[in-house]
């Protein structure tokens, strides 16, 4: 049996056992005291019957901590990656809390509990995602997982503003864990071997294939780092993406590439990984000067007149005048053709 299949089977068995055992956690607790909807119904009755007493008790500050064990119980299934990709808002706890927080609509402006839901997201959901996803499940090299996680964070920001300028401790801890995982991936998991150019002349050679595999894996990581733009501080992202990954690993491989066409494709893919927000002032970043120099060198090598001259002469000598004229018109090289006076 394939090793990966064995691991998957083992994981499914352990997951099923955990989920089964989790059903017994509140088996000895009366339903009125472990069902979030029923618990909140009691507080809602208090809020409606004795509003002054309710408000003076600052219940809105107590609810996130009170409900946390029951919410985490529903999130146990989150050990599987699916809740980062699907909708945690579809779980029962969410609808119960949302209904309680927003009352009947006309109470919205006066309801002190309307901040309870964002507080729960910040204090319970974000720490859960930090441990279950960022620290234990997320592979920074996986574009699907990285896109899923960053999309989730952007949605949390849009709906609950938890990634605002003044980040609270749970959110700050979450982002620090993300930065740490990305740093470990760059420092410890990136490896692009350097071979003599003669070993890379044959694109089918094992050395060439391995070099290309490692290079494109590093480019994928660069793209995934860029997904965290506007979530992780810009200086942290630039240090990871440019100072470390690009200038420490990728640039060496780019300089070692002798195939101009392939080098141009590599540069194009690398440049596409950078967040557009980094270039709003239309100025080159200091960390990109080496990369820019390499691109310019590639441009000059492609556009050298002596190379085109030799090829134009070959076409003229073999009588391919119509083809030569078509090439000149397509690439606007009439000045070079006129200087050669081939016909």
Automatic annotation (TrEMBL):
The keyword Nucleus applies. One of its GO terms (biological process) is mRNA splicing, via spliceosome. It comes from the Eukaryota. Keywords: Nucleus. One of its GO terms (cellular component) is nucleus. Residues 115-250 form the GCF C-terminal domain. Pfam families: GCFC. The keyword Nucleus applies. InterPro entries: GCFC2-like, GCFC_dom. It is found in: Nucleus. One of its GO terms (molecular function) is DNA binding. Belongs to the GCF family. This is GCF C-terminal domain-containing protein. It comes from Denticeps clupeoides (denticle herring). The lineage of its organism: Eukaryota, Metazoa, Chordata, Craniata, Vertebrata.
């Amino acid at each position: 049996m394939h090793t990966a299949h064995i691991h998957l089977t083992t994981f499914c068995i352990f997951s099923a056992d955990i989920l089964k055992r989790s059903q017994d956690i509140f088996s000895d607790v009366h339903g009125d005291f472990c069902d979030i909807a029923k618990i909140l119904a009691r507080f809602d009755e208090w809020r409606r019957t004795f509003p002054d007493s309710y408000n003076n008790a600052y219940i809105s500050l107590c609810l996130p901590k009170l409900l946390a064990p029951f919410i985490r119980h529903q999130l146990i299934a989150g050990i599987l990656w699916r809740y980062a990709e699907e909708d945690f808002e579809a779980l029962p706890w969410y609808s119960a809390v949302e209904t309680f927080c927003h009352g009947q609509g006309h109470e919205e402006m006066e309801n002190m509990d309307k901040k309870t839901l964002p507080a729960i997201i910040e204090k319970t959901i974000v720490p859960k995602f930090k441990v279950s996803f960022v620290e234990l499940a997320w592979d920074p090299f996986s574009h699907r997982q990285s896109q899923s996680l960053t999309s989730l964070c952007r949605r949390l920001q849009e709906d609950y503003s938890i990634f605002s300028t003044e980040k609270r401790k749970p959110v700050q801890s979450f982002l620090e864990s993300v930065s740490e995982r990305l740093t470990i991936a760059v420092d410890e998991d990136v490896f692009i071997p350097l071979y003599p150019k003669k070993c890379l002349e044959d694109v089918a050679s094992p050395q060439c294939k391995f070099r290309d595999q490692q290079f494109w894996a590093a480019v994928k990581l660069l793209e995934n780092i860029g997904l965290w733009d506007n979530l992780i501080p810009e200086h942290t992202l630039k240090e990871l993406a440019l100072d470390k990954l690009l200038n420490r690993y990728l640039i060496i491989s780019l300089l070692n590439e002798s195939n101009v066409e392939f080098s141009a494709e590599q540069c194009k893919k690398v440049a596409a990984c950078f967040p557009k927000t980094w270039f709003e002032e239309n100025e080159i970043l200091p960390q990109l000067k080496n990369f820019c120099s390499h691109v310019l060198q590639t441009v000059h090598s492609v556009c050298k007149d002596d190379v085109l001259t030799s090829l134009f002469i070959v076409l003229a000598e073999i009588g391919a005048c119509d083809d030569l004229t078509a090439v000149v018109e397509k690439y606007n090289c009439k000045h070079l053709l006129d200087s050669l006076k081939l016909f």
